Prior knowledge:
The structure holds two protein chains of two kinds.
Chain A: H1 2-7, H2 18-29, E1 36-39, E2 47-49, H3 51-55, H4 57-76, H5 80-112, E3 117-120, H6 122-142, H7 146-166, H8 173-181, H9 183-216, H10 218-233, H11 236-253, H12 267-291, H13 295-303, H14 308-342, H15 351-360, H16 363-391
Antiparallel strand pairs in A: 1-2, 1-3
Chain B: E1 2-11, E2 14-24, E3 29-33, H1 40-47, E4 55-60, E5 63-64, H2 70-75, E6 77-80, H3 92-96, H4 98-102, H5 107-120, H6 125-128, H7 138-149, E7 156-160, H8 168-185, E8 188-193, H9 196-202, E9 205-210, E10 213-218, H10 220-225, H11 230-236, H12 240-245, E11 259-261, H13 266-273, E12 278-282, E13 288-293, H14 294-297, H15 303-306, E14 308-309, H16 312-315, E15 317-318, H17 323-333, E16 337-341, E17 347-352, H18 353-364
Helix pairs in contact in B: 5-7
Amino acid sequence: MQVLKKRFAPKNRPPFDRVTFFASTVGLLAFLGDWFTVRPNRLAPGAGMELVEAAGPLVFAVLLILWHSGLIFSFNYYRRGFARAFVIMSVLLPSIILFLVGGVAQSLAVQAGESGRVSVGVGLWVALAAAFLLASVVIPKYSPGAGFRSLAWLTLVVLPVILVASGWLSDFSVLQEIAAQGSRFRQEALNHVRLTGIAVLLGTIIGIPFGIWAFRSQRANGAIFFVANITQTVPSLALFGLLIAPLSALSFAFPVLRDFGIRGIGATPALIALTIYSLLPIIRNTFVSLDGIDPAMIDAGRGMGMSRTQIFRRIQAPLAAPLVMEGVRISAVQAVGNTAVAALIGAGGLGFFIFQGLGQAAADLILAGAIPIILLALLVDTFMRLMVAAVKPHGARL
Amino acid sequence: MIKLERVTKRYGNVIAVDDLSLEISDSCTCVLIGPSGCGKTTTLRLINRLADPDSGTVLVRGVDTRKLKPEDLRRSIGYAIQSVGLFPHLTVGANIGVVPSLLHWDKMRIKNRIEELLQLVGLPSNIYANKYPNELSGGEAQRVGVARALAADPPILLMDEPFGAVDPLTREKLQTEFLHIQRQLKKTIVLVTHDLDEAIRLADRIGVMKAGRIIQFDTPEAILSRPADDFVRGFVGTDRALKRLSRMIVKDFIKPVSSLRVGQAISEVRAAIGKQPSVWVTDEGGQPLGWLDREDAQHGKSIENSMVKINLSEIALNENSTLRVALSRMLGQGFRGLPVVDSAGRLIGEITLSDVEAATAQRES
């Protein structure tokens, strides 16, 4: 509470909270766009509908008032009583929007008939993006305490998940596409996680020793970063393609390798390429973290009679760990995205739906692949941030 | 205890230590001093093999260090550097326990040792043992650094500017504590500094270094009164006489004085003053309150009303202060004599300007 008082002291405060103002304005502008698109069937072009005509004045008014409260708050952010109420409002706003449009979609779906589709329009996308942006800005800035903040984050994530899982939103065509894929969706999602996870794991196992080597040997340093930097400049699609020829030649030369899954296409070349991509951030961060340790620390360790191994284990490793883990985080988030491309060479993963959707010109199928990939990336990012915090030595936390 | 025989150390084309011989005896505090780049730190590092000599021999307790495993040698020698040397990811306790754990002491023994050492350097272990270095002040960190160096009770301590990164006030306090600890432990200490006052205060022997050689190796008194050459003379500066005073402790020069207590009868006062021009007045506990001039005592008022009150902290000297402090206070306050108190603040004597003059003359010879 002491901190709040200080931060909200009226002295020298800016006239209004810019980010809150921006997010709320975008949220209001979203009303100008189409919120729904209703189509007679899966592939046919459809007609856009604004929120008022689709949902009626009541729903429109509720959302209008909620977004306006954001504008009002952005000018009154320093008043202590307002903050708590506004955090609660902005945490619930995405779910409120989802709940309301879910109901609208249900009635639109009835009107559209058996083969008709209701999909998400630009206006609704913008509104959801603005609502999540608003919450993610407001929660860390205005929560009165750590417990409240954690609860707010949890609510922001869990409520939409419940809404999706409960089937309330199932009349949206994206979710229909996913439902139509049935077990295939679950299988490819799992495949995506597996490919990403193994690639990052391999990248970590290979990358950390190279990072240490680059730190210890001036000569190796130049060569390692030269190669690692080049791999990053090769487009992922090209790298996948480049691996097809040598690997298929290999598998033809030694047919026994095929039993281990080594072929020109499929999971093996994908894993190799994804591993190569995940190397650079890990090597770089390992090197930088070791290089950044105060030489006086190493000198003290040596002077106290630590062997090289003991210095590494007791001083360098714990001090370098957070930055190394940060490199793994960057690699992991990057790998989630790169794995999408791996579907092109038959490795599977959520990218499969994207390319299938592209082939069929079915926009909703593309989204059925793309949205889970984005969510997965956010999930991996959050998890890895927790890991970074977990390996941070206590003395460096203050 | 430590002996360097014609040791030379080069870094590339630079000769850091040049044909240097040095012998440091047991329980002696040897301070190496010189301008930066004179090789004093390298000399220190030659002793625990953080640097190996290109030629010559380093003997520690009679053993050629090249015959020992560097790790074993270093674990038997305490090593303290500026506070940056504390490991930020370990608690104060764990920092101190590093060498004992390298020596495979059992947990209980390490724990007891940590408590003992924190006590020694004046940091209560219940408060400090679980703190992290970034929660310490500069002075506290330096104390922990010293405690860490002492952890395995090594007979030899190497200290590279151990009081370098703190403000002058804290430094002086740490130096006083250092002297106190050294009087108890009697370690063989090699300390590197560029602060001449620090060297004079702490050293039994000072080695003045220049370009990888020791120009003069002698007691602080000798260095100050008989500099070997112009370099040393220039290095110790023109205020040598003053610096010499900082080697002398007030306690050794005080004279007992008669004093009065407040509330004593006026007849006793006359007797106590006798022929002196004035006399110190203390409270019931013996703390000086002021002085009474002879003329004032004759008016027959009470002592409280006729004495001149003093501000104790500005006037009184601690028995452990140096003559340099005493002189500076006399000049600053304009008094020819100052009362001296013990650590409890009780009056134990007096020191006068002529005592200081006599001390200077006596050691000059």
